[in-house]
Design goal:
The chain is an alpha+beta fold and about 425 residues long. The protein has helices spanning about 10-20, 25-35, 55-65, 75-80, 90-100, 105-110, 110-130, 140-155, 160-165, 170-175, 185-190, 190-210, 220-230, 235-270, 270-275, 285-300, 335, 380-395; strands at about 40, 50, 70, 135, 310, 315-320, 320-325, 330, 400, 410, 415, 420-425. Strands 1-2-8-5-3 form a five-stranded mixed beta sheet. It has a three-stranded antiparallel beta sheet with strand order 4-12-9. The chain has a two-stranded antiparallel ribbon with strand order 6-7.
Length: about 425
């Protein structure tokens, strides 16, 4: 096989980017435009970092050869410890296997009632705000819903106000992670207060689950972890805490962010709301498909993880380019999803891409908002189910009038709106 060295971005472009204090996404977009969908970026390491956005190369790295391109320490390790998100090797395989069954098939069905209960609770709150004219922040409302949903799934209980206040420390830590000191001890000290509040809530939940075999909706994921500890000594209270915080973070932060972006996109594209609701009557498969398409198109523009770091554990050839062992790679769903060669008019919000046959690329490496392969997000189906369920409850009833909207995005672990989302709710039709 003939191979060619990965095209390399001009070091002068990297220097100008550094001098300008630009976002990483800007450098990656520059590398892709200058060098193509597999591009080398000289960042000062022994080998250039390789950006990967081409679908076949994406599938090669994430789907076909996950043991060749490994995940190293996760940026959120400070928060989630040795939970499944940051675990590696055999430990990750064991932890993943335990949780996998909870998020597919019969496992998902046991959470449908809890998802619906959380959606109804949010709908009642929104109805009250619409009736009173009380302003609210859409992003905070959607975060509250997503946190309530995952808390019910974990514990079998609805989220109480005290626990909600303590767990607000999770998004606070996530938001500052990229700017924390490189030294682990210094980073931990910088967020010590937030971590203490999270630990207190987690350990209280663990003890409550030990005392009570099940909540009002039956046992939760936390009970699955406690049951595992009976036969598996590795499931200490520390690991159970880490898994609990991992599921809390991954199970609400990304969903809340996606739904916030969706409401902002609907504000800029109001026809899309009417088209989705006109697809079929309430409760119909047609309407659910259209609502799902709203979520899927939002995830195309703002994927749950905008960048997926990997490390080459051995020599390989990727898309005709030699990759040396020790090379760092950055796989970017964000840039793949905005490639005009894959997605015509990629900046346009168009949910019909997901309902019109042939309107979207079919290669699995062209659309992967939750990752791809063995390390794809465990909660994919859970997140889609809760998002569609909430939209079924809220979208037909309420209009959202934003007092102001964010002007950009913040690229951290997720892509978040860079400001608050204050709004007033109205009735889409007489209540």
């Amino acid at each position: 096989m003939t191979t060619e060295t990965v095209p390399l971005l001009d070091p002068a472009d990297v220097a100008r980017w550094r001098a300008g204090g630009g976002e990483l996404v800007e450098l990656l977009a520059l590398a892709r435009a200058a060098c193509g969908p597999v591009a080398g970026i000289p960042l000062g390491g022994p080998q250039p970092t390789v950006l990967v956005t081409e679908p076949r190369a994406v599938q090669h790295v994430l789907g076909q050869y996950p043991d060749r391109y490994v995940k190293r320490s996760h940026r959120a390790r400070l928060l989630v410890g040795d939970g499944v998100l940051s675990a590696t090797g055999d430990a990750w395989k064991r932890q993943r296997r335990l949780l996998q069954s909870q998020f597919t098939g019969p496992g998902m069905r046991r959470y449908e009632q809890r998802i619906t209960a959380a959606a109804r609770h949010t709908a009642e709150r929104w109805a009250g705000c619409a009736a009173s004219g009380e302003p609210l922040d859409i992003g905070e409302e959607l975060r509250r819903f997503a946190l309530d949903t995952i808390w019910r799934a974990l514990t079998g209980h609805p989220l109480d106000a005290g626990t909600e206040a303590e767990l607000a420390a999770i998004p606070a830590v996530v938001a500052v992670l990229p700017g924390l000191p490189a030294e682990a001890a210094d980073a931990r000290q910088a967020v010590a207060g937030e971590l203490a509040r999270i630990d207190a809530a987690a350990h209280r939940a663990i003890e409550a689950a030990r005392r009570t075999p099940a909540g009002p909706d039956g046992p939760g994921l936390l009970h699955v972890l406690l049951d595992a500890a009976v036969e598996r000594p590795e499931y200490t209270d520390t690991l159970i805490r880490d898994e609990l915080v991992t599921l809390l973070m991954a199970g609400h932060e990304t969903t809340a962010t996606t739904l916030t972006w969706l409401y902002l996109l609907l504000d800029a594209n109001p026809k899309a709301r009417g088209q989705a609701l006109a697809a079929g009557p309430a409760g119909s498969a047609e309407r659910r498909e259209a609502l799902l398409a709203l979520v899927q198109e939002t995830l195309r523009l703002y994927p749950s993880a905008w960048i997926l770091p990997r490390h080459a554990a051995e020599d390989d050839v990727l898309a005709g380019h030699p990759i040396a062992a020790g090379t760092d790679l950055l796989v970017s769903p964000y840039l793949t999803h905005r490639d005009p060669d894959l997605w015509p008019d990629p900046e346009r919000f168009d949910p019909t891409r997901f309902t019109t046959p042939g309107a979207r690329p079919t290669h699995p490496g062209a659309y992967y908002p939750f990752g791809l392969g063995a390390r794809a997000c465990l909660g994919l189906q859970f997140a889609l189910r809760e998002s569609v369920t909430l939209l079924e409850h809220l979208l037909p009833l309420h209009t959202v009038e934003f007092a102001s909207v964010p002007t950009g995005a913040t690229y951290g672990i997720t892509v978040r709106p860079d400001g608050p989302t204050p709004a007033v709710l109205g009735w889409a039709h007489p209540a």
